[in-house]
Amino acid sequence: MALCMVHSVAWNCAGKKLASGSVDQTARIWHIEPHGHSKAKDMELKGHTDSVDQLCWDPKHADLLATASGDKTVRLWDARAGKCSQQVELSGENINITYKPDGSHIAVGNRDDELTIIDVRKFKAIHKRKFTYEVNEIAWNTTGELFFLTTGNGTVEVLEYPSLQTLQTLVAHTAGCYCIAIDPTGRYLAVGSADALVSLWDVSEMLCVRTFTKLEWPVRTISFNHDGQYIASASEDLFIDIAEVDTGRSVFQIPCRAAMNSVEWNPKYNLLAFAADDKNKYQTDEGVFRVFGFEDP
């Protein structure tokens, strides 16, 4: 799938549609047949006036997609009509977006380290908080009671939700923490860092249980598979590492040609979507996303 450089890929909750957000100011939605080889381009979502840096699907609704852009807006799209149904303008260039697991709220982070909580029903900002440190990625736990921030200080801030009061600071890495993923079973959170390590944390005890050490470059993106058995991690290394969560053993490596921007496992099947900083033969950006793991029907 050749596109302008793709920053983000995300599966919908049914595992049948994949969205990609791109530098070309669009998001695109693709219909993926999990047990076949067909990848049909469904539609292009136009309206943003800057790069679409991150996107996420409503965890309860297979056709609602939220996009965050450098144009300061967050938009909600209906994937059946390909239309923007809601939008809100925020105060900065948005680089992070995530849904609360019950679908009621969206959290958005911007380049100025400000967090905004949006009430999805009214599609209005209901809470804003600016942090004094670099905030890189954000996530709720599976119950929505905890909210995590990865920081440039090498820590993970654990906040209570909805008060956003700090409960704990996890000293996770010796360099900035870039990305975070929550295991779908709720047991673990994983953190990828500029020190090239991925740390795995027991959510109930907030203790680090192991680290994954295969990558040699800063970890840009991580994702757990649907049953929490595997974790994928990627960086500027020319492979995506897939490791067993319970043993830490690397079980497979997917070769790639460029630094990776986004990896995401399908919520139902062992399919991994990924997008890279690929260049074509003319050395221009050729953002590509691919899906790994198709089985013969």
TrEMBL record:
One BP annotation, GO: mRNA export from nucleus
Q: Is Repeat found in the keyword set?
A: yes
Origin superkingdom: Eukaryota
UniProt-listed PROSITE patterns:
WD_REPEATS_1 (PS00678), WD_REPEATS_2 (PS50082), WD_REPEATS_REGION (PS50294)
Q: Where are the WD repeats?
A: 6-33, 45-87, 170-211
UniProt similarity note? Belongs to the THOC3 family.
Under PANTHER family, the record lists: THO COMPLEX SUBUNIT 3, THO COMPLEX SUBUNIT 3 THO3
Q: What is this protein called?
A: Anaphase-promoting complex subunit 4 WD40 domain-containing protein
